[in-house]
Design a protein that fits this description.
The chain is of the alpha+beta class. The protein has 1 helix and 8 strands; from the N terminus they run E-E-E-E-E-E-E-E-H. The strands form 2 sheets. Strands 1-2-3-4 form a 4-stranded mixed sheet, with no helix packed on it. The longest helix has 55 residues, at 94-148. The relative contact order is 0.10. The structure holds zinc ion (ZN).
């Protein structure tokens, strides 16, 4: 049976046994786990990150964005969790699913590219410093050489 509400439980560690109708949130490990809201019993894991899911917490009410699409499970459930309410979204066609997955992949690539480009900047800076240092030590060696004559 499709449920219409879910109860958030804040934990450090996700328990082994998951109750139906409960959504376990570990802010420590940036993970949310719950049993699929359609009642199929599948465990749904949604990592929290800028490119995965975001959690909005208002006291005891939680909202998760974007929607949760269980494309890898036979039920193919698709829903939004908004202030502890399960809002059922329409089923998606294969093409729509592909588009969402494609967009997710692109978002991730962009995110990773940003991290890498940031690191590259740091590396270039380090290289310049290293070049300068070796140039200074060469100069120093040349001067010492000149003095000793
Ligand atoms: Zn399901």
């Amino acid at each position: 049976m499709k449920r219409t509400t879910i109860t958030p439980v804040f934990v450090d560690f996700i328990p082994e046994e998951l109750n139906e109708g409960v959504i376990y949130i570990s802010e420590t490990y940036k993970t949310i786990v719950h049993r699929c809201c359609c009642g199929c019993g599948e465990e749904v894991v949604t990592p929290l990150s800028p490119v995965d899911w975001q959690l909005i917490r208002e006291g005891k009410l939680i909202t998760i964005r974007p929607s949760i699409g269980n494309w890898n499970y036979p039920c193919q459930s698709h829903y939004l969790i908004t202030r502890n309410k399960v809002e059922w979204a329409g089923g998606m066609t294969k093409l729509q699913i592909q588009r969402v997955q494609e967009r997710d992949r692109k978002d991730k690539e962009l995110y990773i590219a940003q991290i890498i480009s940031h690191k590259t900047t740091v590396t270039e800076h380090d290289v310049n410093k290293a070049t300068l240092n070796s140039w200074l030590s060469d100069l120093w060696a040349a001067l010492k050489n000149w003095w000793s004559h």
